[in-house]
Amino acid sequence: MTRYQHIYLSPHIDDVSLSCGGTIYHQQQAGEAVLSVTVFAAQPTAQKFSSYVDWMHGVWGNLDEVVATRLAEDKASMAVLGCDAQYLPFLD
């Protein structure tokens, strides 16, 4: 089991990589173990959303693709940074 010197708690996919990427890079360069935990990373299910959320989903297109793409991008950025990542199954 890895003992992490730094744990980042990210509300949304890509928050840590975009906001803290430079810091994580320096921590990794110093040989420190880093973990990012993203809270709201679940795929939405077929359920009733508010009219605003329905509108946003229409703008984004295929919702499953949007979430899957954002998750893949975040995993790739964590790999580049050398940061371990965990994704919790909660809806945003």
Write up what this structure looks like.
It is a single chain. Helices cover 48% and strands 20% of the residues. It is an alpha/beta fold. The protein has one domain. Strands 1-2-3 form a three-stranded parallel β-sheet, with helices on one face. Strand 1 (6-12), helix 1 and strand 2 (34-40) form a beta-alpha-beta unit. The mean pLDDT is 91.
Short description:
The protein is built from three helices and three strands; from the N terminus they run βαβααβ. With 92 residues, the protein is an alpha/beta fold.
Question: SSE layout and pairings?
Answer:
Layout: E1 6-12, H1 15-29, E2 34-40, H2 51-60, H3 63-81, E3 84-87
Parallel strand pairs: 1-2, 2-3
Strand content: 15-25%
Number of helices: 3
Number of domains: 1
Please, what is the average pLDDT? Answer: 91
Alpha-carbon Rg, integer: 15 Å
Strand order of the largest sheet: 1-2-3
Element order: H for helix, E for strand: EHEHHE
Low-pLDDT sequence parts = none
Strand segment count: 3
- Main sheet record: 3 strands, parallel
Beginning-to-end CA distance, first to last residue: 29 Å
Structural class: alpha/beta
What helical percentage do the residues reach?
A: 40-55%
Q: In one word, what is the shape?
A: elongated
